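User: what does the whole thing look like in 3D?
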Amino acid sequence: MSCSKKVDLSGVFPPITTPFQENEEIAWDKLGENMDKWNNIAFGGYVVHGSNGEYPYLSADEKIEMVRRVKEMAPKGKVIMAGAGCESTRDTIDMCNKMADAGADCVLVITPSYYKGAMTSAALQQHYTKVADASSVPVVLYSVPANTTIDLAPDAIISLSKHPNIIGLKESGGDISKIGNLLHKTQRDEFQILAGSAGFLLPSLMLGAVGGVCALANVLGDQVVQLHALYKEGKMDEALELQRKLIAPNGMVTRGHGVPGLKATLDWYGYYGGPLRSPLQPVSQSAADIIKQSFNASGFNP
Amino acid sequence: MSCSKKVDLSGVFPPITTPFQENEEIAWDKLGENMDKWNNIAFGGYVVHGSNGEYPYLSADEKIEMVRRVKEMAPKGKVIMAGAGCESTRDTIDMCNKMADAGADCVLVITPSYYKGAMTSAALQQHYTKVADASSVPVVLYSVPANTTIDLAPDAIISLSKHPNIIGLKESGGDISKIGNLLHKTQRDEFQILAGSAGFLLPSLMLGAVGGVCALANVLGDQVVQLHALYKEGKMDEALELQRKLIAPNGMVTRGHGVPGLKATLDWYGYYGGPLRSPLQPVSQSAADIIKQSFNASGFNP
Amino acid sequence: MSCSKKVDLSGVFPPITTPFQENEEIAWDKLGENMDKWNNIAFGGYVVHGSNGEYPYLSADEKIEMVRRVKEMAPKGKVIMAGAGCESTRDTIDMCNKMADAGADCVLVITPSYYKGAMTSAALQQHYTKVADASSVPVVLYSVPANTTIDLAPDAIISLSKHPNIIGLKESGGDISKIGNLLHKTQRDEFQILAGSAGFLLPSLMLGAVGGVCALANVLGDQVVQLHALYKEGKMDEALELQRKLIAPNGMVTRGHGVPGLKATLDWYGYYGGPLRSPLQPVSQSAADIIKQSFNASGFNP
Amino acid sequence: MSCSKKVDLSGVFPPITTPFQENEEIAWDKLGENMDKWNNIAFGGYVVHGSNGEYPYLSADEKIEMVRRVKEMAPKGKVIMAGAGCESTRDTIDMCNKMADAGADCVLVITPSYYKGAMTSAALQQHYTKVADASSVPVVLYSVPANTTIDLAPDAIISLSKHPNIIGLKESGGDISKIGNLLHKTQRDEFQILAGSAGFLLPSLMLGAVGGVCALANVLGDQVVQLHALYKEGKMDEALELQRKLIAPNGMVTRGHGVPGLKATLDWYGYYGGPLRSPLQPVSQSAADIIKQSFNASGFNP
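Assistant: Here's the predicted 3D structure for the full assembly of 1208 residues, as structure tokens:
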């Protein structure tokens, strides 16, 4: 295990999409073009291989190469958080260290979920403890029940927060009470909580979260960063107004239409969204219209 | 339909429990004793026949009599919000008007839920529209998926918020993004949103909710009211500290141990909790210990 | 408690619909017309106030009157099984005895379900034991997770099957393994299992069920009775062919389109289906077409 | 695409476990010992890399090597069905062809499930069509909602059953009506349905299924094969008696205690169960006792 190298997770992190060519190969040039734009925004860093990166569809080699390139392209000081969770503990450990070698500053480790009945709190605690013991970079817990149906329990998180190599949590379940309770119970410098969506970023910040991993920041990076800044500056009325406006568009590119919705919106906003890997399918024209309408209704035009 | 008599829902409302004797008959004297204590707290009013009132176990006559008595015992100016939702539209309308006649200032109408597959947004909109058209007092929508598995959809709520006799929503699902979005989309004076739990009261207030219907307020009425007051006075640091401390105890008497947990805690705090109506069973001794421990850990001793 | 008066549940029972006029009042004349037709079919009896009877929308007086009339109109020897389940134990007991007084031979008691978290096996066992102790006619357990989200657990059922006044189970969950296991574990004459749908009637009979409560039998009474008869006569190939043909149409009037689908089909087949009580809404024209197509595709034309 | 090489799926297939050493490496010698025992049982063949094989925890190389060895050790004529499903279409195609090269006679392809909201029937149909177009051996569809929360819809299955390289379905959802309906709608020689559990094997066979993929057959291979044989010989009473006895033990090693329960039982019955790959944990002593008790209660002693 590494010494407890502290990584600062404060700020907004876009969980970046993986751009593909028509033949579903990674479009490295398009990744570069997107990065050029994102690099102009005051992000805390980048999440590579979050759910929005279609990471379950990437090979190990692709995952490594992508982290290597993002690290290279990102300005100095930006935190690279790399998704490294696999179903087995041994594969997860292996991937954590590969991500570290490729340049990741920390790893984001999703709950295993295939054997749902067996993923008890005890099993998950053991899993994360072994992973954190063996990972050469700090571990961020990742609970995303919408995809896994596994909600990492508060008691497990509180217990794991004491591990010197577990530095935080990305909470995507959207239960603000859970976030508030965890912040109350893990009041030590080293444990940092990140909201898993722009939809509840401000309430999370107000309760003590340090930042957010927000799909919406791929598209509306400036606005999500501004929300964080308004909060830090104590401009609460403006922050609230902006938070409330962001929720509906955010819903479009997360729960509503997922990665296909996000990629369509990227294209619309001048980024490269591009094709998806099958079995994901592009959004229909009518869905695209609804998404645009929602962004427009909140005043966010490209 | 009544004219759009505005009822002010701001503040904290305890959804009061129904006290029973050992033989499961309503203990009217104990209700009076509890009311005497609650009347000393700066509540906005009372919810009678919310989920915590074991209302599905009460006869129509009991429901009416209880509202009549609470109205009589409550200080002038306290809002009496009475649960009136039934499975059918006709029964709901009938109950709304009986509650009004008994003294209710407004009615809280839960989503029908038995025929789950058929409770589409369209069906629910039609239901609420007919109810609001016919109710002699204003209607508050009530969405509580933990009990009904029906989550009243944002579009339905936004549409219903335009009805002159629908004045608000009690949202118990705990999805702060939904609350934020609804507040953004229903920005008119007449539509008031109430957090359905003390667990997310402060974030809801910050986004624009006017108050909360909080089971925990049965027991920790002063503290929940204080949370609301701190927010109103702009003392955000103190408010946050208090909010975070309330979450774990709140979880004990809501999701964790439900009405049995709440009644046991009432007894512990000097109120009358008393027996439950079967099939509800009292909490076990070990559960009672866990509940006490949680209240104590947050510094709330009777 | 009554002595253990045995009631024979073998055979097919339609859970009859409740006919309404346009103003949602019960159309007693139409009930009579439907009964005249159903009385010509070799049913084991009738279920009054099952889910298909819109029983959550009926008043206590309506429920009693309907059982009284069905008893009167049914040929001698037909078993009248009346839905009597309420949320509280005391209301359920009261309703059981009212149903008995109105002529019910036995009562069908659904699991209480509002306080989902509290409806443990222990709570449900206590509920059913108290009800069976106090009911003047035998009790049939009723588990229908699609409406209640409560699946009465095998251990609870096996334990309750030993009660002298609990004579059977209507199992609507569709888990044939559960049915098989229960039949293995409750091998005594007095406990009778009824399939809760025509969709798995034959497999249930083959494992030892005595019959079925089948929504489809409202419409295709002769065919469902024939399926039972073919099985009893050992004509397995014909039985299998018929069973397989019935599944798709059955799905249309159960999970697919519910009571609205069933009532539309009744109208089509020359029975009186008629309006529903709000908030239930009639099926759309396109849904009606799909239902007809499914019945036609299986060769069942009115 | 291969020509439509017919593979006969009739019979009982154990989805074999993957034996591990204490260090979690595959114990190839123990695999050989288990195979020696299983080869004495009249199975139709073997499923390698079903859910019980801990396949999400195996590397691609391990998966290939394991199929190669099982093929080598199995008697001539036994069908080797190899799990080949991955999250992406391209990875699935690649794995199908690797499995074929390693000796698989057909491939079992689970529904992708990570992006739950996007796995519509249309997306899944496109996925399976592309896979079947490109796979060099026939494809068997695999729906297992307990692990994936995705239930492959009847319409999708019926449509896919027409593809010349899709020869069957392993249905693990346990909905006997779905199985009956599918058998009615896919009455052509080429489409073969396999029950996904011994818990509903006989009802499935009676409705027209050709066999089963049964976790229980790892342990009680003779008995599950005998159940199939009794059915084929028309000895229905004996078959029913045996089916009913198998359900409770089957529940122990499937839903009840999963792969850990199955491996513990294998050890008890003289096979090699052995350790699990983390995060799976061995069953507790009390769980092991309950499992043994259930097998004993049904008369199945090692």
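In plain terms: The two ends of chain B are 45 Å apart (CA to CA). Chain B has one domain: 11-246.
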